[in-house]
Amino acid sequence: MNLRHLRCFIAVAEELHFGRAARRLHVEQSPLSRTIRQLEADLGVTLLERTPGVRLTPAGQVFLEEARRVLLTFEQAQTKARAVAAGHRDTLRIALAGCVGRARLSALLALCREEAPEVGIRLFEAPLSQVVGGLGDDLYDAAFAMAGEMGARLVATPVWQDPLVVAIPARHPLLAHKRVPLEEVMSYPLVLCHPQMCEECSRQCERLLRRVETPPVVAEYVTTHSLMLALVAAGYGVGFSSAAHVAARRQADVIVRPLDEDSAALTTYLLHPEAAMAEPLRHFIDRAQRVGHMPLDTQRLA
Fold this sequence. Notes:
22% strand
């Protein structure tokens, strides 16, 4: 068994289709199938049920999580070795769970490069559940997430708040408002983030919508900010975004207006284990909070 076997298994387990996994790995399907059978023979267990379709066995589900962990640990070992060779004394492993505003993140990374060029930063994107587990298993040093309610042994520190704004199609009645009342927004179909794919962001938006008695009419649930803007531009409905996301995008057929709700904002937290922090992480958190107080480019909020 080697790392190639693990990468092949992870691809098949995530795609649940040998053909798609082969295209993803740029290999032929028959050698890929033989690799998986060899892996199962080496382990002495069946990882995949092949008829009908492809499904993970209980053993396969457990092995998938551990295989991801092994590959991540190997990649981090590579990163640390290269960082030391490049002159970095330390490397911070930062996970991103969910929608972290690109403008804020870019500003933070630029500040880190300016003030602490000797500290390398490695970013990982993962679902919140995987991030929480990775923090507990020392796979990550810290993580950005929209979740602020953590269990034991994890600390959630708010680092920035971004005002919620409304994405509106061009030539829409809501454009009569410079600051849009939430009650008026609820008069139109909404394009919202998917509650399962963007759980914490969706939860924060739901708390806002509950302030109005009118129940929302959802035109579509989306998993990406880009798809939300595309549907809004096509006239499917209006959507919610944040000033941080707006600051990173320009789209002529979508007009952005602030909500007439001073407390309507999305909070981003930095999660880290409650154990004593090393100095590089403590400085990183300090920089994240400083970035949270920096003004964003809001010229499009007109």
